Amino acid sequence: QSVDGLTFSKNTINQTFDFEPIFPDKPTIHIKDCQAVSIEENRYIGQQNGRIEIERSEEVTIEKNQGFGKD
To answer: What is the pLDDT of residues 4-55, one digit of tens each?
Structure first.
């Protein structure tokens, strides 16, 4: 939250079932009040698509991600 200049790239996020989710309705990635954010070349592996939620942020780039939808 509240970052200027964040890069999140080339990661793999695997959904597991070892524990019950605490907040099952929350997005996989939530960017809020940020500037100059890059989310690129990431991969989500799970039963459903991962979710990327952007809130009150500027200069956000989302490219070449697999297994994600976007809110």
So the answer is: 999 999 999 999 999 998 998 999 999 999 999 999 999 999 888 999 999 9
Sign (positive/negative) of CA torsion 13, 25, 69, 46? positive
For the chain, the maximum distance between any two Cα atoms, rounded to a whole number of angstroms, is 36
Q: Please enumerate in sequence order all residues whose Cβ is within 8 A of that of 23, keeping only pairs 6 or more positions apart, or say none.
A: none
